[in-house]
Design goal:
Layout (H helix, E strand, L loop, with lengths): L9 H14 L2 H6 L9 H15 L3 H18 L1 E4 L2 E4 L9 E2 L12 E2 L8 E3 L17 E3 L8 E4 L6 E4 L6 H31 L5 H16 L26 E7 L2 E10 L5 E7 L2 H11 L14 H11 L5 H20 L6 H18 L10 H36 L2 H33 L5 H7 L3 H11 L9 H6 L1 H6 L7
Parallel strand pairs: 5-6
Antiparallel strand pairs: 1-2, 3-4, 5-7, 7-8, 9-10, 10-11
Helix pairs in contact: 5-6, 5-9, 6-9, 9-10, 10-12, 10-13, 11-12
């Protein structure tokens, strides 16, 4: 960790040193008083050497490690649920380490302590074989709660959050939960016009609370903003959602970039990802925002009369099961379906269809603000692909030249040997053209995706039946879109969906 930028941050260093001193003996505390005088290079070298040792392992040594990992998975990685053997998501407790958090988290650098059996609650049925704790230890508690889906839990010491051992995403229980989630989002399709009329009526209400609810719901619908939960000050990074927006997070522009009534958003969203957007809004929304900002300081709440609980309760009254997250799932899935219908051409090659799919997925990722930093290897990988394109172009030019010579020879002599050579070279040119097109599509896709995280929406917000139906309809192998883990997670959708499905 020494070569990571975190170790230069004052908050990280201060938190680490404070926690370290608590673990020191009285004598160590007297000697070690200044972190800047501490030299960790030997410890760093020890772990760097361990990494190198692992890299230098022979194939046989790696195979032995894999055998041991498989044995542990077989012993601890499965449970029996309703008579069925189900895979457990992750059966290993996180080892001790230093907390990093996302963005400028105020607790970065604090010590994540080792979890002991005495911290762990086991949840299993009364007639099951209760797992034995390590020798000399006991579990905090063994319970038999059949209404929850977790198998073990403990409280981590940095943020006092509860951590769980859960079933694997491919389990029957998780699949049913996913199916229900997307069915609620599909149900919203039939109610969304009524809800939109409702929040437009709220904009004109004489009650400020209703006006704020109407504008907040409009933002959640139009911009797929998260609702935003209330947090204890100083406990977490300064990230916000719709209900926790402050006056300083928006600017109003009567005109901007040729558009009327523009709202400029700038704030840190979930995982400290910056949300920056300039959005033209309807005139009543603009006027209401102006009203909400009157006589307020920059750090005052924009929506000071409502919170997430109130907003979700209002949404529930509009439709059973409706929350801000359901709205986000609906808008994400609706956008994917709309974009796929618009962008897919049945006559495209598989590579071109995949580019269309990724462009549709990208529209969703942009809507949901799923960003990432460009990978460190991006420049190198783009350079490699450009070199491959250049080589392929040279091969194609050479093949075309040979084909032209062969065609001229065949025209002159009309012999069987020349005819076969022309056919062979025509096939070669066709194959090289297809390979070149594939490489160009790959380069385009990689460039367009360098700062967009497609995986988050694919796993959590997009109804998998849209993707499965699209693959079946246009002859795209499902393996090209979903990896093995995703295929396991969405097995229910793969088995039940035909090509005519529309969200």
């Amino acid at each position: 960790m020494l070569d990571h930028e975190y170790t230069d941050k004052e908050v990280f260093r201060s938190n680490f040193f404070g926690d370290w001193r608590e673990e020191m003996t009285p004598r160590e505390r007297k000697v070690i008083t200044d972190l800047s005088k501490c030299d960790f290079t030997e410890i760093h070298k020890y772990f760097a050497d361990k990494v190198e040792e692992k890299r230098a392992m022979t194939k046989e040594q790696k195979q032995e490690l894999k055998k041991e990992a498989d044995r542990l998975t077989e012993e601890y990685g499965y449970c029996i649920l309703d008579g069925h053997r189900e895979k457990i998501g992750n059966f290993k407790v996180e080892p001790p380490g230093l907390f990093r958090g996302r963005g400028s988290h105020p607790k970065m650098g604090k010590l994540k302590k080792r979890i002991q059996p005495e911290d762990v609650i086991i949840n299993c049925s009364q007639d099951s074989k209760i797992p034995m704790p390590p020798e000399g230890h006991r579990w905090k508690k063994v319970q038999h709660e059949g209404t929850v889906t977790w198998l073990a839990s403990w409280v981590e010491n940095v943020q006092n959050g509860i951590k769980y051992i859960m079933l694997n995403p491919s389990s029957k229980l998780k699949g049913e939960k996913d199916w229900k989630k997307y069915e609620v989002a599909r149900k919203l399709k039939d109610r969304v016009d009524m809800i939109r009329r409702q929040y437009r009526d709220d904009w004109k209400s004489r009650e400020m609370k209703r006006r704020q609810r109407g504008v907040a719901t409009y933002f959640i619908d139009k911009l797929a903003l998260r609702a935003g939960n209330e947090k204890e000050e100083g406990e977490t990074a300064d990230t916000v959602g719709c209900c926790s927006l402050r006056v300083e997070h928006i600017k109003l522009h009567r005109q901007m970039d040729g558009e009327d009534y523009v709202v400029e958003f700038d704030f840190l969203g979930k995982d400290s990802i910056r949300y920056y957007n300039k959005v033209p809004v309807e005139k009543p929304v603009f006027k209401n925002l102006k009203l909400f900002m009157e006589n307020k300081n920059p750090d005052d709440d924009l929506f000071d009369r409502i919170n997430t609980v109130f907003l979700n309760k209002s949404l529930q009254e509009s439709m059973d099961g409706l929350t801000a997250k359901v709205f986000r799932t609906y808008n994400a899935s609706f956008t994917l379906q709309e974009q796929l219908n618009k962008l897919t051409d049945p006559d495209q090659s598989v590579a071109e269809k995949l580019l269309s799919y990724n462009r549709a997925n990208r529209a969703v990722a942009i809507l949901c603000n799923h960003q990432r930093a460009a990978p460190k290897t991006f420049e190198k990988s783009m350079q490699n692909i450009q070199e491959k394109i250049a080589q392929k172009q040279q091969q194609l030019e050479a093949a075309k030249q040979k084909l032209k010579e062969a065609q001229d020879h065949y025209k002159k002599y009309r012999d069987e040997k020349s005819r076969k050579l022309v056919e062979k070279l025509e096939k070669m040119v066709e194959r090289l053209e297809e390979q070149l097109k594939k490489l160009i599509v790959q380069a385009t896709d990689r460039e367009e995706n360098k700062q967009i995280a497609l995986g988050t929406s694919k796993l959590n917000y997009l109804d998998p039946r849209i993707t499965v139906a699209w693959c079946k309809k246009y002859g795209v192998p499902i393996e090209k879109v979903y990896n093995k883990t995703q295929r396991d997670k969405f097995a229910w959708a793969i088995h039940m969906t035909d090509e005519e499905f529309q969200f």
